[in-house]
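Batch job 17 of 40 flagged for manual review because the log was empty.
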Amino acid sequence: MKGGAVIAAVVVCATGVVPISAQSRGEGAAPVPACDRPFYQISCAMQAAGITALRQVVLGKDDREIRYWMTSGYFFPDEVLILRQRGDSVTGRLVYFWAPGMLEQAFAQSRCREQEQWSTPAGGACVARLTSPIYWRAMVRDLDEAGLSMVPFAPVRTKWCDRTPIPPPPDDPDRLPIDRLCPMRFDGFDEVIEVKSATGYWRYQFPDFPAPMDIGLQRDKALREIFRRTNQR
């Protein structure tokens, strides 16, 4: 399964993650079907952990939720960094997701908080045990200074690819046109930002093949570096 399919499942079934707490468990939400089958669905692991869709979260006027996803569908764990801002206070956590039968006991013991682990036949989830302290308030400040708020207004464009078939040469007019091949990615991670505040919601996926001269490239690079401070890989 390519990473894009995993993200699609997140967006359609449960677009995002909220802090795992009694306040945000999303009681009353419609259950995700087929979670009793041994086929990886990140939405099922999210539901088991009490994680609800970011679009559905009701925030106070001074609240903001920022989420940074890294998903693959090949290399586990998939993960999301969750930052919740309430006025001047910021909390954060890193949540892992994995397919059934992968990264089970040994992974959970070494990488997960003991009391924050969940499992379903369709996948597991846990809150990561970080190896070093992270200053969440400083992270949010740095994201803002790097231009986070400008992303939905100036997203980096995907590199243009000419898909026009190559015509046959003059000396072989009966030859069929040759299709042009555009760059494709078959491994690695999809990276997505979600942001929700009292004023609205937006989502941005970092392009696999960005336009080389786009003015937003340095901004995106800075944002990635800040988000990856929690990288435990």
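Reviewer: the log was empty due to a logging misconfiguration, but the result itself is present. Confidence is low (pLDDT under 50) at residues 1-29. Unflagging and moving on to job 18.
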